[in-house]
Amino acid sequence: MRLIQELGDWFDLRLQLQTPIREIATHPVPRDTASWFYVFGSAAITCFMLQLVTGVLLALIYVPSAGEAWNSLQTLNHGVSLGWFIRALHGWGSTFMVAIVLIHMVQVFLFGAYKFPRELTWIVGVLLLLVTLGMAFTGQVLRFDQDAYWGLGIGASIASRIPVIGPWAVNLMLGGPIIAGTTLSRFFALHVFVVPGLLIAFVGVHLLMVLKLGINEWPMPGRIVRRDTYLQEYREMTHTKGVPFVPNAVWKDILFSGFILVAIAVCAVRFGPFGPGGQPDPTIIQTAPRPDFFFLWLYALLSFLPPSAETPILLIGPALGIVVLVVLPFVAGEGEKSWRRRPIAVLTILLVAVALGTLTHLAEHAPWSPVMDAWSSQPIPAEYLEGRTALERHGALVFQAKQCHNCHSLNNKGGQRGPALDSVALRLTEDQLIRQVIQGGGNMPAYGKNLSPAETTALVAFLKTLHPANQKPASNASQTVALGLSEESPR
Amino acid sequence: MSAEKGMSRRAALMKVGVLLNSVVGVLLAVPIVRYLLSPVTREKKSGYESWLSLGRLEQFPAGQTRLATYRNPLVNDWDGETGNIACWVRRVDDQTFQVFAINCAHLGCPVRWFPQSSLFMCPCHGGAYYQDGSRASGPPERGLFQYRYKIDDGKLLIKAGEMPTPGQPVANKAGGCQTCA
Question: What is the distance between the alpha carbons of residues A322 and A318, in angstroms, rounded to a whole number?
Fold first, then answer.
């Protein structure tokens, strides 16, 4: 024991770190911040530590070369003992890190922690969110599979829309004219050197300010932040009524971080590593690229924006979002901190959460994409064919052969790009069906050139049978009267 | 020598030092920036595109649309299969072709050809194009990108080498020029 003490003294005489470390550890914090709501920041750092360690471990095997990266990922998954587990930890670690950073941000926002004097802490936090998302995107590229390849294509297509410098931005992003070796190399440099460097620097500044300015106190409704009195009030809260950070508050941070690490490890073991998917061979076009979880909402958004508004929204939207986040503490730097008295703040969070959640959910099903193999893999339900005439059955065949099924579902099978056709005969008369098939419209291609008159007749005959047995199909009443036909129209 | 005079000499030397470092900094910045911008500056100098063969004309029956692949003209040894690029070749008649980029004009995903319905469909956001490459439905703002082509010695050549993107002036102007040979 005495030996350890002497050894410690020997080092401290030279390093002189004992006093500052003790001061940092025991700095007083407001009593009510020793709470389970104040653990997300430290958990985010724990995730980052895990990413650093597992990232270095992966770099021992990974080859950042367009020709070899995919093979080296296979080696990691199958050839190196527990390589799959390290990959899984890194992948799930990134998912948890983005999630925790977002939760941390929501908590900080709802607790009014961005108000005076912590404006800069918030701004650095916004930068940390951006670099964390940057890590997520560049990391997804390093998992160099089909999704990564075409994801880069989407990134390049977006970059190309920047006015004036668009084409140059594409070349700069790809490191050349196409997605190839230089592209992967520069994303490797970004993911391994540049962005983590920024991340470490920002975390350092962020933590320094948390220490210098003190952790945000628990917001009480009615306790108003004012620039000229706040510092004095906070001093009161910490120095007279506060508690030391260690041990009063830190145990919750440690427990939660440990819990997060366990959760990541459990996910890694249970669900395994992310991919890699198919080989990054651009001549293999039988692929439906999807981004990773955290960019799914963007993927969904891109399919819903009207073509004319897409470019401005894509280019201005993110910049506007960042400006709003940065300006927030200057617009609302004083006043009420408690979410109980800030209904607009709570509504904003709810709105953003619901929007992102909905878009993510939609992107998981991608109803806007044709189901490319529905025409050959999803048969027409038997009940839609029983007791039909030869012409109608031939129409069903046309329906399959001309890939109508890729965009239109029958009995919930097939594409959802266009409307389901189970009861289309209730909505459209024969003439309207013919017009729609031949001329298209309403986001449907025109099939006039691709169908012979006989095929169109057969197809429409089949479509006319698509209605519930107890409901009559749509008919043109004026035509019925004008032609002197009876009400009883043929099926 | 007075202490004050010594101070000013030190201050002057420090200024010289700062100046020296600034000059060196600028001198180093020039090659660094040029190095970083090389993907852009190279394109301005010699261009990325050149004429490439897609194979003999017999490979492309008239009235049909076939997938063709080529090796990008500018590749590194370590590019692997990413240097192979696919495109769709439509032979309209004996001497008339249309060569479409594989990339959707919306966000660059690979479009697939469905001969039965004569449509190109994109798996990402549901863009669709007619057989002549014009927009049929979905989010794309324009038709498919087209490569310039020429027929030489019984072979189909296209001018290619750069990934077509919506913002590219080159990609936008292509399409009208069918027989540039």
Answer: 6
CATH class of the domain defined by A23-365: mainly alpha
- Angle at the Cα of A150 from the Cα atoms of B144 and B92, rounded to 5 degrees: 25
Across the interface, whether the CB atoms of A178 and B163 are under 8 A apart is answered: yes
Q: Chain A neighbours among B 118-147 (CB < 8 Å)?
A: 118-119, 121-126, 128, 130, 136-141
A144-176 tens-digit pLDDT: 999 999 999 999 999 998 988 888 899 999 998
Assign domain A374-482 to its CATH superfamily.
Answer: Cytochrome c-like domain (1.10.760.10)
3-state secondary structure of B156: strand
- How many C-beta atoms surround the C-beta of residue A33 within 10 A? 21
Q: How confident is the model at residue B45 (pLDDT cuts 50, 70, 90)?
A: low
Contact B107 A171 (CB under 8 A): no
Best residue of A146, A171, A290 to probe chain B, by most B CBs closer than 10 Å: A171
Residues on chain A touching B80 (C-beta within 8 angstroms): 65-68, 181
Residue showing tokens 């006319």: A464
Q: What is the pTM of this model?
A: 0.89
The reply to whether A23-365 and A374-482 are identical in fold is no
10 Å CB burial of residue A54 (0-12, 13-18, 19+) is buried
Chain A nearest C-alpha distance from B91 (Å): 17
* Among candidates B76, B102, B169 on the partner chain, residue whose Cβ is nearest the Cβ of A181: B76
Put simply, whether B151 touches A (Cβ < 8 Å) is no
DSSP for A314-357? HHHHHHHHHHHHHHHHHHS-SEE--GGG-HHHHHHHHHHHHHHH
Taking an 8 Å cut-off on Cβ atoms, the answer to whether B121 and A175 are in contact is no
First to last CA, chain A: 97
Of residues B133, B116, B138, B129, the one with CA closest to residue A366: B138
